[in-house]
Amino acid sequence: VRLALYFQRKAPEVSSAFGLLADRALLKVTQVALGLSEQTSSLPLDDQAALIQDRLDVEDLKDPEKLDELLNRFAAIWEIESPSTSVSTSVPSLILSGPSVVTIGDGLLASLQKLRIGG
Hints:
Layout: H1 2-10, H2 17-21, H3 24-34, H4 45-55, H5 64-81, H6 85-96, H7 106-114
Helix pairs in contact: 1-3, 3-5
């Protein structure tokens, strides 16, 4: 969330792909949202800028609707790549856990036996 909020605040001020490359946080959001590997950072700067320009019109960052679309894509991909701990630990454990045994306590069983059909 912190990365997305920072990007939302700073991205409209960026005038070129080099502006995104100059800031680590902006670059991280850009890489995730555009599906660029972190390994692209080892490319020459001009090649990195070209990759970003091919996938993103930097002027779109000034449009609030297009910026929101990009941030929604970032958030979705980020959550898939690094799910939050509450989701990642509870869902798989529920799905992958073996069959559980449910028992009825003696008190409840005795109460049920005292019930009469029809009243």
